[in-house]
Design a protein that fits this description.
2 helices
């Protein structure tokens, strides 16, 4: 009986360690995929293009009369 009592916690701790390692690997894989997708995404200048002067420029032009 004492052998079963000692082996059950060992089995449970091994199972917990296996689950922990598996979750760490899954976490690393998801981080790596997101990192590569973000780091090597091509640049799209049209996403950052300003379309004309803003309100500060319009106010300045009204003051100067241009």
């Amino acid at each position: 009986m004492t052998t079963q009592a000692r082996s059950l916690p060992n089995l449970l701790s091994r199972a917990a360690a296996h689950i922990t390692v598996r979750s760490l690997v899954a976490e690393f894989r998801s981080f790596w995929r997101e990192f590569v997708a973000t780091a090597f995404r091509p640049y799209h200048p049209e996403r950052h293009y300003m379309r004309g002067p803003g309100p500060a420029c319009a106010a300045k032009r009204r003051e100067t009369g241009k």
